[in-house]
Amino acid sequence: MSGRFKVIGALMCEDVRQEVNDAISLIGVATPTLECANFPARRRLSPVLLVDTLETGPATFKVELKWRGKLRYGIEVEIEIDEVSKGVPLPVRGTVGNFDRPGTLALDVIIDDRRKTVQKWIVQKGTGGDAETALH
User: Fold this and answer.
1) For residue range 59-70, what is the model confidence (pLDDT) as tens digits?
2) Which pTM value belongs to this model?
3) Which of 1, 21, 73, 127 is the most exposed place for a label (fewest CB within 10 A)?
4) Angstrom distance (rounded) from CA 75 to CA 53
């Protein structure tokens, strides 16, 4: 059953780490803007969903990243919810984004065949970051 949680938001990070004490460290959290020093560019993308858990038990859902409206990355996620809580960070296995020019990156979540765009980021020329690699 996937109705065990509600997605309330999403973050995009350069990296997400599970610490020894089970804490989650978010590194390089992006604002609604992802800056790249040059195009084409590559950026590490580690999505984190923010969820309210509604009941315990297994849950399955899909996460998709769309670049300029086209699917670039998709993953099916299976989790076990062990407690009811609010604002729980739920890291999703990351990928590398290849950006050929400025545009919009969208994160969609599909639960029980219902699609929801949770967050969009504007990818634009700027100062970039340590996780960026120019491809020239």
Assistant:
1) 999 999 999 999
2) 0.86
3) 21
4) 20
